[in-house]
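Ticket #227: bound-state structure for zinc ion.
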Amino acid sequence: MIRIAPSILNANFEKLPEEIAKVAPGSDFIHLDIMDNIFVPNKTFDFDRSREIVTESVLPIDLHLMVDNADYWGPQYSTLVDDGVFSVTIHLEAVKNVRATLLKMKEFGVRRGLAIKPGTDLEEIYPFLNEVEMILIMTVEPGFGGQKFMGEMMGKVERARQWLIDENLSDLWLQVDGGISAESICVAASAGADTFVAGSAVYRSDDPLTKVAELREIAMSCYLQKG
Ligand code: DX5
Ligand code: ZN
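RESOLUTION: The complex was predicted; output attached.
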């Protein structure tokens, strides 16, 4: 099962419902990047604006919180589940009490994601594998769209996929975010990623909907294929 979530970070913020509608027929989710200018050197939407975007979106929202104090914001954003938030991903580097925070988020019924930046060891998330529904391995330094895919993160993706196989956690999704294109999506899918965020590849394309279909087709044919 391959999932594609276009990121609207590089879409036209003035016309978000239309930008989302453009890709909706071919996409599983819309990936919404929340940045606070503290955890990352960039700022996007505050809570109220996020809620508006979620409410107006015709697709369920995959929320990626790049904010400090995830102990507070993870549960807070999880309250938007009835407005259309499907998953909420917090960064391991931004949360103090990981277990308690994930437990609070669970109460709202969102799919919970745990993300790591390129500099964070994969092994740090191992203790929480049974308490999340998605792992996000960043393939760029979080903060901005349009950066180059870090192929050197594929070792983490391969190891994470092996964990999921070994521990029988086939319901746990393995997401990559950053620099996903028609070329890099094959690399990430062959390493074992099954859930893909693509921002500029989709929204800088002349035909975003066709681009999503193309990405999905490539990911399906490359998934866990070696060589
Ligand atoms: C980067 C964000 C990404 C971003 C991806 O910090 O988390 O979701 O939108 O954009 P591209 O696909 O252009 O790298
Ligand atoms: Zn993101």
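RESOLUTION NOTES: The first strand starts at residue 3 and ends at 6.
TICKET STATUS: resolved
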